[in-house]
Design goal:
The structure is a single chain. The chain is of the alpha+beta class. The chain folds into three domains: 42 residues; 73 residues, Immunoglobulin-like, CATH 2.60.40; 52 residues, no CATH class. The protein has two helices and ten strands. The N and C termini lie far apart (122 Å).
């Protein structure tokens, strides 16, 4: 008789614990749903179009939500859109090459229009100069073979293969893919960046 009573009490306690656990899980699920709902209500979207002074859409404009990691580019129609933007005042920065940057303040769930003004960027002038230094071949720390135009005429040189007649240790071949591979004194390459240089001084 005592065993039966104890068994019933055990089952009653176990059932009560299960019901309590179900209520706790239900409360947790409800709390999460409320949090998601509130968050969804607080977030919104911002969209708009970027044009120039001639009312022409500008594509490729970088649009950034300041103080966040949200950024995008305008499409071919100059349009852009952000989703899940936090509620409140939002500052958007618009930047594009050839145009002055613009910062525009707006609110979520608004469609805005932005006009960018062209800028004439003037780069500093750069002067490049070069100077040729005459130097004797014997004093140059490299293997050089020089020949005159008269020698080319005398030997009837038509291409680099013919150079083997007047340049020692020169080998020239054509692999058939449009390249002319040259090696001299065992130095050469099979890539498109040859290791042997040919200079023509007219």
């Amino acid at each position: 008789m005592v065993k039966t009573v104890d068994g019933n009490i055990g089952r009653f306690v176990l059932k009560k614990d299960r019901e309590k656990m179900k209520r706790i899980l239900s409360l947790i699920s409800l709390s999460l749903l409320i949090c998601f709902a509130v968050n969804a209500q607080q977030n919104g979207k911002i969209s708009g179009v970027v044009i120039d002074a001639k009312n022409i859409a500008i594509s490729g404009v970088t649009v950034q939500v300041l103080n966040s990691n949200l950024s995008t580019l305008t499409n071919a129609s100059g349009a852009f859109e952000f989703n899940n933007v936090p509620a409140g005042k939002v500052s958007l920065k618009f930047t594009a090459i050839g145009y002055a940057s613009v910062v525009k303040n707006t609110n979520i769930n608004e469609n805005i229009g932005v006009v960018l003004a062209e800028t004439n960027l003037r780069l500093d002038e750069v002067t490049v100069s070069a100077q040729k230094t005459d130097e004797k071949i014997l004093n140059i720390p490299a293997a050089i073979t020089a020949f005159s135009a008269a020698k080319v005429t005398d030997y009837r040189i038509q291409n680099t293969r013919d150079l083997s007649a007047i340049v020692p240790n020169l080998y020239s071949s054509n692999p058939g893919d449009g390249r002319n591979v040259i090696s001299i004194r065992g130095i050469g390459t099979t890539s498109y960046d040859p290791a042997v240089a040919t200079y023509i001084d007219g």
